[in-house]
Specification:
alpha/beta; Amidase signature (AS) enzymes; globular; binds glutamine
Length: 449
């Protein structure tokens, strides 16, 4: 009831596309009854969680913030959502985001943007902007987002909360409306590491419905967060911290913090990573290619918006359905992806980008042979103002420079709120460990925040 009141009170933030008030009340009743019957408390008993509007929850609407899927009802639950329910969580509603998770500012939603609660003239980040603001503004205790190229970490950074993208394959993608399947991963927003750890251990693990979900056992993250003050070996990418697009205040806060870590006995070493300038182009070639294929199913026949316009021609029917159903950014990416996959350009763009991805993976493994943790900024600037980048998609894409690295290589990464900018907005540090090393990542996060 408290959270339902808060959601109503802060409705202007536009964080929720739909509040599942009846489902939530019903879940609460069942949970209360279980307690009355003397049954033991579940791991997330009564924990109120919001989910990004790309995750299916059986019998509830799910739209990917798109006209294309308006009124689409999920016939089954995403594994991550089902596991939350099984662990006793109350799913309170579906959260606003950029259409089909494409964007960095939540300005691409068919339902209008979510507002950053700290400054309503600024973006909450994206694409999981609603999930970030819901936690930032206290509208739920934790939330799920998805992170294909930074969509959990960057909005967490813009809103001053914690955002974790686990290893690719750590959490099942079953029931997650795909953007780029070899990048997509469910992520978690929270206000402290213990909460994030608790949610992660509830939803991680193998799944017969997703062959890319790892069968590695899921550690008890929440019970093992504190370690005896080890001396960590940190690396940071020199080109990243020296990059001209990085806000000078962020740069000096980071460098100052590195000194602090050294003074506490940790090592912090700059490393060269000349591939940095290729990562945004590589990301946008590969993800648009995958999305053009994934989104081809929305033809208005099998799924999606169906035009009212009369036509006897099948191609025209498809074209009308898709032209009316998809927004600008989604269309731009489908066109770009179709282009890089087309016969004449496949080798020049798609094959080349795959080769770069391979090299990135190899070099990242070399870094983790010598270091425990890579530190990076999360974003080049704090939350920007609405409209500031809408006319220039390239400028928007370049803002993903620090986050797409972890998705290209599949490693886990977390954004931690640490500092305040002179413009009044928060910003943080991003930490990464090797694949499936979420436990050390959460442990080092406890040290850093
Ligand atoms: N900003 C990135 C993009 O627009 C990230 C999206 C995401 O992680 N879903 O593609």
């Amino acid at each position: 009831e408290f959270y339902l009141q808060e959601i109503a009170r802060q409705k202007h933030l536009n964080a929720f596309i739909e509040v599942f008030d009846q489902t939530a009340a019903h879940s609460a009743e069942i949970l209360d009854r279980q307690v009355a019957e003397g049954k033991p408390l579940l791991p997330l008993h009564g924990v109120v969680i919001g989910i990004k509007d790309v995750l299916c929850y059986k019998d509830h609407l799910v739209s990917a913030a798109s006209v294309m899927l308006e009124n689409f009802r999920a016939p089954y639950s995403a594994t991550s959502v089902q596991k939350l329910v099984d662990a006793g969580a109350i799913i309170i509603g579906r959260l606003n985001c950029d259409e089909f998770a494409m964007g960095s500012s939540n300005e691409n939603s068919a339902y209008g943007p979510t507002l950053n609660a700290l400054d309503n003239s600024r973006v909450p980040g994206g694409s999981s902007g609603g999930s970030a603001v819901a936690v930032q503004a206290g509208l739920c205790m934790a939330s799920l987002g998805t992170d294909t190229g930074g969509s959990v970490r960057q909005p967490a950074d813009f809103c001053g909360i914690i955002g974790l993208k686990p290893t690719y394959g750590r959490i099942s993608r079953y029931g997650l409306i795909a953007y780029a399947s070899s990048f997509d991963q469910v992520g978690i927003f929270g206000k402290n590491i213990a909460d994030v750890a608790l949610v992660l251990e509830a939803i991680a693990g193998n799944d017969q419905f997703d062959s890319t979900a790892s069968s590695l056992p899921v550690p008890e993250y929440s019970a093992n967060l504190s370690v005896d003050t080890p001396k960590w070996k940190f690396a940071y990418i020199r080109e990243a911290v020296e990059h001209p697009s990085l806000d000078p205040e962020i740069r000096s806060a980071l460098l100052g913090y590195f000194d602090q870590l050294r003074n506490s006995g940790h090592s912090v070493t700059p490393i060269d990573f000349p591939l940095l300038e290729y990562i945004v182009p590589t990301y946008y070639v590969l993800t648009t290619a995958e999305s053009s294929s994934n989104l081809s199913r929305f033809d208005g026949v099998r799924y999606g918006h169906r035009t009212q316009a009369a036509t006897d021609d099948l191609s025209e029917f498809y074209a009308k359905n898709r032209s009316e159903g998809f927004g600008r950014e989604v269309k731009r990416r489908i066109m770009l992806g179709s282009f890089v996959l087309s016969a004449g350009y496949y080798d020049a763009y798609f094959t080349k980008a795959q080769q770069v991805r391979r090299q990135l993976n190899d070099q990242t493994q070399l870094i983790f042979n010598d270091f425990d943790v890579i530190l990076l900024p999360t974003a080049p600037t704090p939350a920007f103002r609405f409209g500031e980048k809408t006319e220039d998609p390239i400028a928007m894409y370049l803002g993903d420079i620090y986050t797409v690295f972890a998705n290209l290589t599949g490693v886990p990464a977390i954004s931690l709120p640490m500092f305040w900018h002179s413009n009044g907005m928060p910003f943080g540090i991003q930490a990464m460990t090797n694949r499936f090393e979420e436990l050390p990542l959460l442990q080092v996060s406890e040290l850093l925040v």
